[in-house]
Amino acid sequence: MLLDNALYAYRMLKWFKVDTSKLGFVPEGEFYPSLDQLLQDYPLPKWYDMIRNYLTRKTYSQAKLKLNFDCSTLLNGRDKNKEIQNLSVILRKDGKFYLAIMKKDQNKFFENSALYEGNLGTMEKMDYKLLP
């Protein structure tokens, strides 16, 4: 609440900032140079964002496990032309969809077959082509 009020006051101060290029002259007195210096020295919106992001951050765990199977583009799209690079295909059986991830050295396994026989029975490979 205090941060929100401070940001609101900062924005209200910006209402008094004068654009001298549009005005055609520089106003005299101490108010405008002091206001410009204050707004320049205290970047409150930047601080506000930093504090808000710190207070609302999610807890970080070192126990995370990164799964990319030595493929930087793993599961990065399902286009028919990218199956070999992204190591993934979509399979369908009885109206349910399954995501298959291939080994890097066996990435052409689904290239010529429309049906796949496996532990779950016969599955149909979906050929997806993205048309822009």
Provide a brief overview of the structure.
This protein has 132 residues and is α+β, with helices and mostly antiparallel strands.
What is the fold's blueprint, element by element?
Layout: H1 2-14, H2 20-23, H3 31-41, H4 44-55, H5 83-86, E1 88-93, E2 96-101, E3 115-118, E4 121-126
Structure description:
The chain is built from 5 helices and 4 strands; from the N terminus they run αααααββββ. With 132 residues, it is an alpha+beta fold. It is elongated and about 85 Å long.
* Low-confidence regions: none
Which percent bin holds the helix content? 25-40%
Q: Element order, helices and strands?
A: HHHHHEEEE
CA radius of gyration is: 29 Å
List keywords for this structure.
four-stranded antiparallel beta sheet, 132 residues, alpha+beta, 5 helices
